[in-house]
From TrEMBL:
Signal sequence, renumbered to the chain: none
Biased composition (Basic and acidic residues): 795-808
Biased composition (Polar residues): 809-818
Region (Disordered): 25-47, 714-843
Compositionally biased intervals (Gly residues): 819-843
The organism's place on the tree of life at top rank: Bacteria
Protein name: Carbohydrate-binding family V/XII
Length: 843
């Protein structure tokens, strides 16, 4: 791990400190605590504004306003700041920034690297002093490592980012069963694949989601459901409760994930037998606990069924039922079916479900909602890892069932994929490309040796969703002489965007069914399933941006791609949980993500890089900890802003220094600094003498400029800070207003005139927030624009709303994280999804 960190230091040497400072910072970090929680705290977004200090110069910079996140790699933003030189006077300014990002989705943090300052403006500074201040700003602003919450960035982008193109998914409904009795869904893909259990006549059925055994002597099947044993002559037949088990079950080996089964031998006598629904393909079960209990959703014509783990709704207007399965909506006139696809014709009332409703979790799957937009955008954010090439190549291992590689054609292309291995290997012409734990390798032979790819063929990114290896199209990478930087999005883990024409939503799986692979050539059969969309109770978790198995009726090992691991040396099998989370209470030996073939224990199966021995962006976290300029003067000092606001500054090693005061200063596209008060009114930093002048009256019916004459005693900034209203007529205002302040009237419009001659704010014309030809931030050759124009303040309004929303989302996530990752009292790794999925806000 340490070697990997050193590689990061080499490839980013232009932005990092010296090795000595790295060592010093690592040592000081270890003093604060060595636990994962402590490390996570060091790298988290702890709020805005922040402070940096360099050789006595103090820089306070407010939360960046993001204009673009190109390919979710390159950030373009504006930032407002105050700069105080050593023994000098504080000045305010705005800057345009461009930077690369490295994202750690486990912590929902984006780390800045290779930051460039493309433009700086000082509205109230003498031109002769500008070069000196520009130089100090660039020297003091942290060049790397500064973490910003992904939620803050996405909140800014939600107004400007175009919706992505959805995939050609297959949205036909699966088989959907319905029951009001205690019941389970038993899925056995195809015919049962039987594996012998040592020293007994018992065989284990490997291609199912429940603990299912076969007695070769009596030809009976035995099924364990929670603490009840059932038996049947046929997996598709009637199941009855039994308390008599074959002796062979007592010989189940220890340490092979049978320990939970052994606890139920001999069988408990109490408990009633559940109803068993059987399917030989992916299916779904709507399980109601007795007769449906409908609860009305205020403000809508919708009702939801309360006594079920499923998301089932009734629409009084259309007389339809709706159910949400793997992110897709299906409708029916009857709860018993038949069901048809409905996501593209969902009633408008679904978007009106209150955010505090017990079923508000479904908003992430309702086209056009903010929650759905957030889910779609988060799915496109890249998860990145930087690896040493030699280390990655040394860990690649590929084995083929039967020894000889077998390839099948990829429909609609000239490419082929390897069918008898869990690894994703694509044949393009005479070359072979392997996507192994979200890193691309290539070889001239299907057996290797494998070398990291400097470039991935464009043909690979034309693989259609109908192919079981489609998810590799969501992995890209760049390389240097010694390192590989690999990036992947949620599609690699099985979450796909559909329906851009009517409002994009994020779903689990492509909807296509990929039959499993079974090999009988050896002493033991080998079963390898491809992932599929239905049958695992996949529920979207907004905090992780992915799907996780969530309902007990689907089986303790998750039916959405259950797999058996196989040790060729011993012939032993084990079992593994599936989808992207451990099923409640029945933790298998290792999590298994059917899309990546990853057996390692990972955080909800989200981490595609576990093979490399670290979480995604861990290496990035390390340089984030060592690459940030911050003060070293203790845990807290006082601070006073130019507007008179006071606060407390909290310092921490390895991240920005947070100032606990109002984060209400903004950078306008016109090159001016703006401040927003508690009533939503904007003031701009006056370019005449450094005071604040009202930029418009927002949130009221008054025209810009009204009310200023009558509020001479009141400050225009937050809490009245910086409230001196300057006039250029020294004889006015001293008597009539009684404030003794000079009001600058020439900067204000007349009663019938708008700022800049533009349409009034209240006229309802929406303007985009991209720079116009006569706006100047980012255009160094143009002079400052006129302050306070309605199109600028409209844009600032959107920035303020986004900033508030990003703050709320960031704090909500960090509160969840601090509580140990549990949602509604359930941990993500050992039961948090059980009984309705704790994060869904139920019971």
């Amino acid at each position: 791990m340490r070697n990997a960190f050193l590689i990061i230091g080499v490839c980013l040497s232009s932005i990092l400190f010296s090795c000595k400072k790295d060592k010093d910072t690592e040592q000081s970090s270890s003093e604060t605590g060595k636990s994962e929680t402590a490390d996570s705290t060091l790298i988290a977004d702890r709020g805005w504004p922040r402070e940096a200090e360099n050789n006595g110069t103090k820089l306070v910079y407010y939360q960046p306003q993001v204009d673009d996140w190109k390919d979710f790699k390159e950030l373009t933003a504006r930032v407002a700041f105050s700069l105080t030189p050593k023994d000098g006077k504080q000045v305010l300014g705005v800057a345009s920034l461009k930077a690369e990002t490295l994202v750690d989705k486990d912590n929902r943090s984006a780390f800045i690297k290779n930051l460039q300052v493309t433009d700086i403006r000082f509205p109230a500074l003498d031109e002769k002093k500008v070069p000196e201040m520009e130089k100090l700003f660039k020297e003091t602003l942290p060049q790397s490592g500064d973490p910003i919450s992904v939620d803050r960035i996405l909140a800014d982008l939600s107004h400007t980012k175009s919706p992505p193109k959805g995939i050609a998914a297959k949205n036909d409904p699966p088989a959907i069963f319905y029951s009001t009795n205690p019941s389970i869904l038993l899925i056995v893909q195809g015919e049962p694949v039987l594996v012998p259990v040592e020293k007994s006549d018992i065989q284990y059925v490997v291609n199912t989601n429940w603990d299912l055994f076969f007695d070769k002597t009596t030809k009976d099947y035995y099924l364990l459901v929670e603490n009840i044993w059932l038996t049947s002559k046929n997996v598709a037949g009637k199941w009855t409760k039994t308390t008599q088990l074959p002796a062979g079950l007592s010989n189940l080996p220890s340490g092979q994930n049978f320990d939970d089964v052994k606890k139920m031998i001999p069988p408990p006598s109490s408990g009633a037998a559940p109803e068993v629904f059987y399917s030989n393909k992916p299916a779904e079960l709507i399980a109601i606990n007795g007769s449906p209990k409908f609860v009305k959703i205020p403000g809508t014509k919708l009702l939801y069924i309360d006594n079920t783990e499923n998301d089932v709704f009734a629409d009084e207007n259309k007389g339809q039922y709706y159910v949400l399965l793997s992110g897709r909506w299906f409708k029916s006139k009857e709860l018993t079916g038949p069901w048809s696809y409905a996501s593209n014709s969902l009633p408008a009332d679904f978007a009106k479900i209150p955010k505090d409703s017990p079923r508000a979790n479904v908003l992430s799957s309702v086209p056009g909602t903010q929650e759905a937009n957030d889910a779609v955008m988060l799915s496109q954010v890249l998860t990145t890892a930087i690896l040493k090439k030699s280390d990655a190549e040394a860990k690649v291992k590929v084995s083929y069932d039967g020894g000889t590689p077998q390839f099948k054609p990829i429909d609609g292309t000239k490419m082929q994929y390897a069918s008898n291995t869990q690894e994703k290997i694509i044949k393009v012409g005479d070359l072979y490309y392997l996507c192994f734990q979200a890193v691309w390798f290539m070889s001239t032979s299907p057996n290797g040796p494998w070398k990291t790819c400097d470039s991935v063929p464009k043909e690979i990114y034309t693989i259609p969703p109908s192919s079981p290896v489609y998810n590799v199209t969501y992995v890209t990478q760049t390389t240097t002489d010694t390192t590989v930087e690999s990036s992947s999005t949620a599609g690699y883990l099985g979450a796909f965007i559909i329906g851009a024409t009517f409002g994009a939503i994020l779903t689990y799986g492509t909807g296509w069914y990929y039959p499993p692979y079974v090999y009988y050539g050896g002493l033991y059969p080998i079963y390898r399933p491809w992932p599929y969309a239905y049958g695992g109770g996949a529920v979207y978790n907004p905090w992780t941006g992915g799907y996780a198995a969530g309902r007990r009726v689907y089986g303790p090992y998750g039916a959405a791609g259950t797999s058996a691991w196989y040790n060729p040396a011993t012939g032993r099998y084990g079992r593994s949980a599936s989808v992207q989370g451990w099923y409640g209470g029945r933790t298998a030996a290792s999590t298994y993500n059917p899309w990546t073939g990853n057996y390692a224990r990972t955080n909800q199966g989200h981490n595609a890089y576990a093979q490399w021995g670290h979480s995604a962006a861990t290496n990035g976290n390390q340089w984030a900890q060592t690459g940030h300029i911050t003060t070293r003067r203790g845990t807290a000092i006082g601070y006073e802003t130019s507007g008179g606001n006071k606060g407390v500054i909290t310092h921490r090693r390895g991240g920005g220094t947070t100032i606990h005061t109002n984060n209400n200063v903004y950078a306008g596209h016109d090159g001016h600094v703006y401040k927003r008060d508690a009533n939503g009114n904007w003031s701009h930093y006056n370019n005449g003498n450094g005071g604040w002048t009202q930029a418009g009256t927002l949130g009221s019916s008054k025209k810009a400029g009204e009310g200023i004459q009558n509020r001479a005693n009141q400050g225009l900034g937050a809490n009245g800070a910086g409230g001196r209203i300057q006039r250029d007529r020294p004889n006015e205002g001293l008597g009539a207003n009684g404030a003794g302040e000079r009001i600058q009237r020439d900067n204000l419009p007349k009663a019938n005139q708008n700022l800049g001659g533009e349409t009034r704010i209240g006229d309802g014309i929406q303007r985009d927030n991209f720079p116009k030809a006569n706006q100047t931030l980012g255009q160094p050759n143009k002079p400052l624009g006129e302050a306070g124009r309605p199109d600028i303040t409209n844009d600032l309004d959107r920035s303020a709303i986004s900033r508030d929303r990003g703050e709320m989302q960031t704090r909500n996530f960090q509160n969840i994280q601090r509580s140990g990752g549990g949602f509604n009292g359930g941990g993500l790794g050992g039961g948090g999804f059980r009984g309705g999925g704790g994060f869904r806000g139920r019971r």
